[in-house]
UniProtKB/TrEMBL annotation:
<feature type="binding site">
    <location>
        <position position="213"/>
    </location>
    <ligand>
        <name>[4Fe-4S] cluster 2</name>
    </ligand>
</feature>
<feature type="active site" description="Proton donor">
    <location>
        <position position="132"/>
    </location>
</feature>
<feature type="domain" description="4Fe-4S ferredoxin-type">
    <location>
        <begin position="178"/>
        <end position="207"/>
    </location>
</feature>
<feature type="binding site">
    <location>
        <position position="243"/>
    </location>
    <ligand>
        <name>[4Fe-4S] cluster 2</name>
    </ligand>
</feature>
<feature type="binding site">
    <location>
        <position position="222"/>
    </location>
    <ligand>
        <name>tRNA</name>
    </ligand>
</feature>
<feature type="binding site">
    <location>
        <position position="187"/>
    </location>
    <ligand>
        <name>[4Fe-4S] cluster 1</name>
    </ligand>
</feature>
<dbReference type="GO" id="GO:0008616">
    <property type="term" value="P:tRNA queuosine(34) biosynthetic process"/>
</dbReference>
<dbReference type="Pfam" id="PF13484">
    <property type="entry name" value="Fer4_16"/>
</dbReference>
<keyword id="KW-0004">4Fe-4S</keyword>
<keyword id="KW-0671">Queuosine biosynthesis</keyword>
<feature type="binding site">
    <location>
        <position position="240"/>
    </location>
    <ligand>
        <name>[4Fe-4S] cluster 2</name>
    </ligand>
</feature>
<comment type="function">
    <text>Catalyzes the conversion of epoxyqueuosine (oQ) to queuosine (Q), which is a hypermodified base found in the wobble positions of tRNA(Asp), tRNA(Asn), tRNA(His) and tRNA(Tyr).</text>
</comment>
<keyword id="KW-0408">Iron</keyword>
<keyword id="KW-0411">Iron-sulfur</keyword>
<feature type="binding site">
    <location>
        <position position="190"/>
    </location>
    <ligand>
        <name>[4Fe-4S] cluster 1</name>
    </ligand>
</feature>
<keyword id="KW-0170">Cobalt</keyword>
<keyword id="KW-0479">Metal-binding</keyword>
Amino acid sequence: MISKKDYTKFIKSEAQKLGFLSCGISKAGFLEKEAPLLETWLKNGSNGEMGYMENHFDKRLDPTLLVDGAKSVISLSINYYTDQLQTDPDAPKISRYAFGEDYHKVIKDKLRQLIEIIQEHIGEVNGRAFVDSAPVLDKAWANKSGLGWIGKNSNLISKKVGSFFFLAELITDLELEYDVAPTEDHCGTCTRCIDACPTNAIVEPYVVDGSRCISYLTIELKNEIPSEFKGKMDNWMFGCDICQDVCPWNKFSLLHTEPSFEANPSVLGMTAPEWREITQETFSKVFKNSAVKRTKFSGLKRNIEFLKS
């Protein structure tokens, strides 16, 4: 008879073969510690116009409401770090994670393969895959399963590889061995991320006012960017890497090995004047398979114009 230990070892091994950086497993259940924190964050309006964060409050805290009979949350990370940069230092900046193909599709394909492998090896297993687009507190689950700690910039950080990685989950009705000890916090007295944020989005250690974050302002915000942020965007037109770039733990970042995340030469090579003159046609061509499509052409143009003014 195959044991929970064998199943767990098999799943972690297969996840590694598929290119995942790490895999940790937690017992599915209600997130008691996170519930009041999420409630306060929402009451303070820190979600800005992200109204979807207020939806499915109970499901966001309890994966057993998302998957019938859920017993395990399999947390996975996948590296996207690159040392490549945009060639024009004056060009409006794009976050590293959007240099290549849209991570949602890449990771969902890998999760689909992992589910199929689990079902082929173990049998009838019910499960759902999640990549940043459902009511799942992925950082909380990744922390519980030992993938890292939630830092003062609210990103998950690993002592081994820093924080330039995506998170995803498989929530399944399969009972497995659980990684019982959350990773210890290693931020110490460091405040580099807090000090470096040009919009003061990290309002206190471990608490980010999403409505002030450059990533929110350039991607999630659909209305005009408030004038109070003029001159404070540090030339970011899509996302922001500041709090990660200054984090000491990212000196341990490793170059990714995922072909789909290879930087698009067109993204890296465009000059500042070319960005300012970008057309819908160019946008559609350059960002055909990119996460940048989320902001749409009109949103990117708005961001570029805001940086100019």
